[in-house]
């Protein structure tokens, strides 16, 4: 039996050692690439940006959103304070009396007591009602702030979508006129067309390139406006879903129910409820809170005498507040009157915006149907005249005019789709619905 004997590590040939080193390096590199491919997330797997995602990103940056948790904590603390046994914290009283500084006969007196503030009649219940109203006002104020942010995001979003559609239409027209110009160049070399036709085709290409540059600049401006609201990176905006329309708002049972659920009206109603609660509480607090005093006293008259123990129970009742109380009540009533008037004006404004938004959506829907019908006819005409131009039956000016009309029809159809989506979004905004 023969045994194979391998050379020691230091005796391997130079070529064999180099081959082994390269093999190990290749294996290690392949393993790292495979591990990275398993852990890395491809860009296509990321969720594309939507209108709702843009709104959530914009709302997360708002001061109202950042302070919401603190405001809720304050409302809960106020509700707990209204449910406590006393309107103010209990106070401890400590006092001592001595004649050490004058006669020094040994007179001593020590007193320990507590002062307990008392609720005025009806004050505790009205304080609880005011705390509940302020808690509801925090939530409705937050929803109203969300709706205002949603209006800004919706406007920026659809402006960006319009600019994106304009750029796509301009690029499509540029591609078509370049194809026509290339065809004209071939026919010029063949002697079928004159050099003037080539110049005319090149001029159409230059005009289309200018339109693309203008649309690209408008898209950049709209994109920067949207990014200023959402702080989204350019990559996220590039992956946004184009022209994603929101669902049409549901039809309410009555117009009154539709208006009563609006966030702006709910916020004003809750603020009015807070003002009414403040009026009721201020009317109750016609004076400062009375105090119940319980004290224990230990004293002696002179040296050698024993200490005596006494107990004191007293009530402290302040006088009426007078003009200060009247000022608080009058200020709260003025706030309530102002909010009631503002709510009436807001209701009228929202009713007008609701009807206008619905009419705008209906008009946009009819405009889209007409634009799509025109685009279909223009597309068929483009095919007819393109074939006729290739056969030499149509001149170049007519072909370029048909191409311009077809491009304009496609642009109008794309714009009409976005206008309908924007109109539905504005309709939802007028109804107080957040983006979806």
UniProtKB/TrEMBL annotation:
Classification via Pfam families: OEP
GO terms, molecular function: efflux transmembrane transporter activity; porin activity
Predominant location: membrane
Keyword line: Cell outer membrane, Coiled coil, Membrane, Signal, Transmembrane, Transmembrane beta strand, Transport
Coiled coil: 347-374, 399-426
Single GO cellular component term: cell outer membrane
Signal sequence coordinates: 1-37
Localization per Swiss-Prot or TrEMBL: Cell outer membrane
Assigned protein family: Belongs to the outer membrane factor (OMF) (TC 1.B.17) family.
Alphabetized PANTHER family for the sequence: OUTER MEMBRANE PROTEIN TOLC
Official protein name in the record: TolC family protein
Organism from which the protein derives: Thauera aminoaromatica
């Amino acid at each position: 039996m023969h045994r194979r004997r391998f050379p020691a590590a230091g005796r391997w040939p130079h070529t064999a050692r180099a081959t082994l080193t390269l093999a190990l390096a290749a294996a290690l590199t392949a393993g790292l690439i495979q591990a990275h491919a398993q852990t890395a997330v491809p860009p296509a797997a990321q969720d594309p940006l939507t209108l709702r995602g843009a709104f959530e990103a914009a709302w997360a940056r708002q001061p109202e959103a950042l302070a919401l948790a603190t405001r809720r904590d304050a409302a809960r603390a106020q509700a707990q304070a209204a449910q406590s046994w006393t309107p103010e914290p209990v106070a401890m009283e400590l006092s001592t009396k001595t004649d050490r500084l004058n006669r020094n006969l040994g007179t001593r007196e020590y007193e320990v007591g507590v002062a307990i503030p008392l609720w005025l009649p009806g004050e505790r219940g009205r304080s609880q009602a005011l705390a509940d109203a302020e808690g509801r006002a925090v939530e409705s104020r937050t929803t109203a702030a969300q709706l205002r942010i949603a209006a800004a995001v919706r406007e920026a979003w659809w402006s960006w979508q319009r600019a994106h559609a304009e750029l796509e239409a301009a690029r499509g027209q540029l591609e078509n006129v370049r194809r026509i110009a290339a065809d004209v160049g071939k026919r010029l070399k063949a002697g079928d067309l004159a050099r003037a036709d080539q110049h005319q085709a090149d001029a159409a290409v230059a005009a289309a390139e200018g339109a693309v540059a203008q649309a690209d600049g408008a898209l950049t401006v709209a994109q920067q406006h949207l990014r200023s609201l959402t702080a989204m990176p350019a990559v996220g905006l590039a992956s946004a879903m184009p022209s994603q329309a929101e669902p049409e708002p549901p039809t309410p049972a009555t117009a009154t129910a539709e208006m009563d659920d609006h966030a702006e009206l709910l916020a004003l109603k809750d603020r009015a409820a807070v003002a009414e609660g403040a009026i009721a509480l201020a009317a109750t607090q016609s004076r400062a809170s009375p105090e119940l005093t319980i004290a224990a006293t230990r004293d002696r008259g002179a040296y050698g005498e024993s200490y005596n123990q006494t107990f004191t129970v007293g009530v402290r009742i302040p006088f009426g507040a007078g003009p200060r109380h009247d000022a608080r009540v009058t200020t709260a009533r003025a706030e309530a009157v102002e909010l009631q008037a503002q709510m009436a004006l807001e209701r009228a404004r929202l009713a007008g915006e609701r009807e206008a938004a619905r009419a705008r959506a209906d008009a946009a829907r009819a405009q889209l149907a007409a634009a799509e019908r025109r685009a279909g006819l223009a597309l068929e005409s483009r095919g007819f005249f393109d074939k006729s131009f290739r056969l030499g039956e149509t001149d170049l000016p007519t072909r370029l005019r048909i191409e311009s009309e077809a491009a304009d029809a496609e642009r109008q159809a794309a714009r009409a789709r976005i206008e309908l989506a924007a109109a539905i979004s504005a309709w939802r905004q007028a109804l107080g619905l957040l983006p979806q």
